Amino acid sequence: MDKLHAIRAFIEVASAGGFSKAARNMGLATSSLTRLLDALEESLCTALLTRTTRQVTLTDAGTTYLEQVSKILADLTQADESVADNRSEPIGNLRVSVPVTFGRLRLSPFFANFLQAYPRITLDIVVSDAYCDLAKDHIDVAIRIGAPENDPNLIVRRFAINQRFVVASKDYLNHIGTPTHPHDLTSHECVRFNYGSGRQYWNFQKKTRKVQVEIKGRLLANSLDTLHEATRKGAGVALLPEWLVSDEISAGTIIRLFEDWKISPQAEEAYVYAAYLQNRRFSRKTSVFIEQIEHYLKENVRNA
User: Fold this and answer.
1) What CATH topology corresponds to 164-263?
2) Is pLDDT of 170 > 90?
3) pLDDT per position as a tens digit, 114-139
4) How far is CA 58 from CA 8, 48, 71, in A?
5) How far apart are CA 266 and CA 257, in angstroms?
6) The predicted structure's pLDDT at residue 293
């Protein structure tokens, strides 16, 4: 038995949820695929799959085995690519996770330019604000915004400070009045990002003076696009990243408040950064992507 071939077959059956579809995907006869899985289970002295006439499901042992061998095959694929990356032109599929709004507004032009510069790389862009598991979700590079995580399995490359401004629309301020001190926010509608917790505070600092203000408001959302649009329409005061509102601040339709205060709702500084697994550090396609996106952000996003 070719064990590596049998393991690939097992992963395909688990993914497809049945032998017939898996056999078609692999270009094998169903009987041949069945014999491969039988031999694999016999070599392990355990059942990996529960088979009925209607479906195929993983046993507990099969679930554990799938998780482990999937990692091994991913590492093997990466090792193959690392050796192949010695060639002059980077090649292969690059799976990249990006935040929804930042990806749409700031990264879409970069992706187009990158593909033109590297015609043998395929980009698979996963758009989500959720922090994915890079190994489990087979992500090569994650572009993230926030405080970089302290994970020994990850390499982090910081690109820019994610500077945030307290802002409101010109119409809202003309109608309600302009707060001149952070404490004034207690009497204003604040448009808030929904972090999933109850009470919410914004922290301000001017030189050595620190102020913490509890923020309240009737609109919460877990989407920057929603908060941005609501702020533009006069829903209240919001804390939004500079890269999202800089053009409107320049145009005067959105007003930046408390310019002499530093604002951070979290204890740690937030960044725009890339995270990738240690085993990707020798990948040429990963390295050129990191280099190119860093150059692009320095040219197109402030504070980079």
Assistant:
1) D-Maltodextrin-Binding Protein; domain 2 (3.40.190)
2) yes
3) 999 999 999 999 999 888 888 878 89
4) 15, 6, 17
5) 19
6) 96
